[in-house]
Amino acid sequence: MSRRYLMDCEGYSCGICYKPIKIGDIYVTDHGALYHASCAEKAMTVDPVANWWGMA
């Protein structure tokens, strides 16, 4: 998993669970979509080859 960021604005949703990423939440990105860090970590444990997200 690469860099983690702290959300500082509203209006974005996770590309995995589709729930809003709230101000203060930690998220990761593939420079096209945003994901809750916890959702991305779970997805990577289910499918470790999912580094096509650019997060491995």
Overview of this protein structure:
Helix content is 18%, strand content 23%. With 56 residues, the protein is α+β, with helices and mostly antiparallel strands. The longest helix is centred in the last third of the chain and has 10 residues, at 37-46. The strands form 2 sheets. The chain has a 3-stranded antiparallel sheet with strand order 1-4-5. The mean pLDDT is 85. The protein has one domain. It is globular. The chain has 1 helix and 5 strands; from the N terminus they run βββββα.
Explain the layout of strands and helices.
Elements: E1 5-6, E2 12-13, E3 20-21, E4 26-29, E5 34-36, H1 37-46
Antiparallel strand pairs: 1-4, 2-3, 4-5
Instruction: Give a count of the beta strands, DSSP E runs of length 2 or more.
Output: 5
The arrangement of helices and strands along the chain is EEEEEH
Task: Count the domains.
Answer: 1
Strand order of the largest sheet: 1-4-5
Whole-number average pLDDT?
85
* Share of β-strand residues: 15-25%
Query: Globular, elongated, flat, extended or rod-shaped: what is the shape?
Result: globular
Q: What is the count of DSSP helices, taking H or I runs of 4+ residues?
A: 1
Rounded to the nearest angstrom, the distance between the terminal CA atoms is 4 Å
Class based on secondary structure composition and strand pairing: alpha+beta
Could you describe the largest sheet, including whether it forms a barrel? Answer: 3 strands, antiparallel
